[in-house]
C-alpha cells in the first residue's frame, strides 16, 4: 500500500490521513506523552513562564512519572492527580530556579483545587527524596519559601514607592528574625 500513496502530496499533508499515518508509527504512550507535553507548555505559557523553567517542569514531570512507584508497584495517575502533579512540577521548577509562584496561582490556571496540588507536591517530594537516597543523580534541594521571596515576585503588582518597599522589607525581616 505504501507504493500507492504519494505521501508528499498536499492532500495527504492537510488531512486527517496524515495524522493516522503518523500515529501508526508511534505507540499510544508516545501520543499520550506528546499531549501532556503540549498541555504543560500551553499552561506554562498562560502563566508567562520563561523557557528554562518550562524545560525544568517537563524534566520533573518525566522523572516523577518514570519513577512513581511504591512497594515495587507503579502508581498510575489519572484525572485531577495528573493535573496536580503538573502543578507541583511547575511549583518546584520555580523553586529550583530561585523564584516563587503561589500554588493558588497555579491552581487557578490549571482549574484544580489547591489541595490536589499540595497532595501531589508530597508525592513529588517523596519520589525525589527516594531517588536522592538511591543515587545522587537527582540532587535537588528545595528550600522553604520565605515572605521576602513572594514580596520580590509580586512587588510590581503593588505599585509602591521605593521607601514603602524598604519599610515593608524591614518589617518582614523583623518578623522572620523574631519568629512571629
**Biggest β-sheet description:** 2 strands, antiparallel
Helix content: 55-70%
Which H/E pattern describes the elements? HHHHEEHHHHH
Q: How many E-type strands? A: 2
Order of strands across the biggest sheet? 1-2
Beta fraction of the residues?
under 5%
- What would you call the structural class? mainly alpha
Give the CA-CA distance, first to last residue: 74 Å
Determine Rg (CA atoms, Å): 22 Å
Average pLDDT across residues? 77
Molecular shape: globular
Q: Helical segment tally?
A: 9
Task: Describe the 3D structure.
The chain is an all-alpha fold and 180 residues long. The chain is built from 9 helices and 2 strands, in the order ααααββααααα. Strands 1-2 form a two-stranded antiparallel sheet. α5 (80-96) packs across α7. It is globular and about 65 Å long. It starts with 9 loop residues before the first helix and ends with a helix. The model has no long low-confidence stretch (mean pLDDT 77).
Helices and strands in order, then pairings?
Blueprint: H1 10-13, H2 16-25, H3 28-46, H4 51-66, E1 69-70, E2 73-74, H5 80-96, H6 103-110, H7 114-134, H8 147-158, H9 162-177
Antiparallel strand pairs: 1-2
Helix pairs in contact: 4-5, 5-6, 5-7, 8-9
Which keywords apply here?
180 residues; mainly alpha; 9 helices
Give a nutshell description of this structure:
By secondary structure, the protein is mainly α. The chain has helices at about 10-15, 15-25, 30-45, 50-65, 80-95, 105-110, 115-135, 145-160, 160-175, and strands at about 70, 75.
